[in-house]
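Hi support team,

I'm opening this ticket because the web form for multi-chain structure prediction keeps timing out on my end. I have pasted the exact lines I submitted so you can reproduce it. The total is 811 residues across two entries, so I didn't expect it to be a heavy job. Is there a limit I'm missing, or should I split the entries? Thanks in advance, R.K.
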Amino acid sequence: MKKFTSARISQLLFLAIFLVLFLMTEYRGSDRIGVAVNAFFRADALTAVSTLLAARGWVPFLLPGVVVLILSALLGRFFCGWLCPLGTILDLVTGRIRKTAPLQWLKGSVKYWLLLPLLVASLFNLNLAGLLDPIAILVRVLTFFAHPLVGETARSGWVGLYRIIGERRDVLDPGYHLLKDYLLPFRDTLYPLAFLSALIFLLIIFLERFETRNWCRNLCPLGALLGLVARLSPFRRVPAKICADCQSCRDLCPTSFDRELLQKEECILCMECQLHCPNQRVRFRLAGFHPADGGVVMERRVLLGGLVGGFFLAKLFRFRDPQAQARLLRPPGVRSEGEFLEKCVRCGECMKVCLRSALYPALSQGGIEGLYTPVLIPRLGYCEYNCTLCGQVCPTGAIPDLPPERKKREVIGKAVFDKNHCIPFALRKECIVCEEHCPIPQKAIRSEEVTERDFNGRPVTVKKPYVVDELCNGCGICENVCPLEGKAGIEVFAVKDRTPLREGETGGGEMIDDPYS
Amino acid sequence: MDRRSFLRVLGLSYLFHRWLLRDLAAAGMPVLAVAEGTDYGQITRRAINALGGMGRFVKPGQTVVVKPNMGWDRNAEQGANTHPLVVKAVVEACLNAGAKKVKVFDRSCNDERRCYVNSGIEPVLRGMKGVEVKYIADERFRKVPIAKGMTLKEWELYDEALNADVFINVPVAKHHGLTRLTLALKNVMGVMGGNRGSIHKKIDGALADINSVLKSHLVVIDATRILTAHGPQGGDLRDVKVLNKVIAGTDIVAADAYATTLFGLKPADIAVTVAAYKRGLGEMDLKKIRIIKA
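Hello R.K., no limit was hit. The queue was backed up. Here is the completed structure from your submission:
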């Protein structure tokens, strides 16, 4: 490991902030989350640019990302060398990985082949940037893989302890609760795509076998984007070429000095060359504007190929299985699927923060274009009536941050009874657990008392539930708590028309009469 | 004092004490204390004191479980959870009686973190010494055989409730879609594990079964405000009626029977109460219950 240079201190600081923010992306007794890990996404130039392209308009809270982009045009890729938590992790582990030769096929245009289609697809209303965004990759591996793994392990140990020593375990309670409150996830949720998320991350680590910062210099689309604007930077290293008499830079430089000329779009401003130059020759200084330096950015065929690739990407992966669509429930406040796909960067934060672990990354529900986007699965968790956390942490406003009174009226879907399963209909026995849990103050699930004969011919009076469609916001608690095993007797289905419930229907304001009575 | 006079005093005081108690219990009739007032802490204390004080139930060094309703993400005003000041007064009375530890918990229906906070119960108890407000841990449910069970032969119950020396049942009086009202007998659902929704098929018998194995040593019903419709979670203040009352008693059926009248209903209207009465868990005939205004 290198000594504590300014760059390294900054890296460790931001990695620590990143991890703390990640842990803070959770309900901690207050309706609002002050700061969350979305701060990193807001400063993420790639997701900012792709979202602005897709939205074709200004989104105010993406300002930090744009600022980073402008700063990169002035300074260079400082984000990669000083801030990016994934870069920091690579720097921390790379010393322990023995290197073979660099992979030649990764050199050159691969990163543009990744970056361009992502940005062009955004232009065609499909925001895929998050799939390969380094911050998103890191948040997803933590959310879907590492955090649940740690939580599961700690909890099974804790449960095991109870099985052995029973109530005497309470002595250790304060310690475990400290751990639980600050380090472990509240619920032991397992996620689909955990394996893929881990695989992508491990692959990036594995690439360190070939050269340092392999991902950062040859693949990362955020790095490629920042590199493109970094070429404009008037802040440059002198001498620009490697000095024939010394050549120490070849070993010192983590990214760009495997060639004769410093590759400006790959320099991450770690300053190692300046700090360790045996002859004290190296300086970083303002040297005016020479955008033509550094040769061609990419060949024409890469540019054209990237553009066409993005177009295909946005158009050809639109196939969706209609049956899966029926259950494609989006987080509260998402009114149109199209607009959602423009803005959602698939970072996984909403799923991390969801109070009831109701949100899961889509594997196939939304087609290939919907990979990793959040889907509500009511049988696993429901949308908590008073909770607005997902909207608060969404970095791009794909899930709007609404005040509780408005969020309660947002329609996720509509509940429908399946009378072949629902206990009062199928078995002629009492139940209405769904009605009990329905959070709408006027109750979107109600029941009528019906006297009929049971299957032995004896008269019984049973409360038979029904849904008041105008009041249902599709939160899914009914489906979640249905005491039937496996398939529930009531299910929430997606609807196209997600016009919010009228005011007053969620308590306060005038009482809405039962339209069926 | 010589030995003889000491014994005489001892004997007399023993008899006298018993008479007092019997007088209080009016020859075996269950007693309910009903206190009314706008200071909810004070009326709770008055109701408990009218029964002979918390010292009658809690001995020094004992572990007490206080089980409120805090199953819903609703605030104190909305009447879906037990009022925090009532819970606090009960907990304080236990501590004053010398309880070693008072545990307060509920298996909530909404997110437990939000319920504990929004109900106002966790904030009001925060920092009190000897008080534990923890979330339910699934592994602590223990299968309990129900010997006289008619609907349920066994069920998973929470070990802390089973192991406590004293179990104090502190429900809020409110409407319920299925059982019409939910009171003390139904409040024990909060210590039931497993798929408890499935008992709704025959809830009156099931609750009688559970209450036959988990006895409430003291019942304190919060009727400071009652939810008259759209229960058990409400949410609309127009369904909330302020009564400023607290009912305390040792007979869980009697307490539920009396609380039923606050809604303009008769005890016989509530199937859960009737089932528990038939099971011999208490008295539901209001004429056979002595009510003290405290």
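A quick check on our side: The longest strand of chain A covers residues 445-453. Let us know if the file doesn't open in your viewer.
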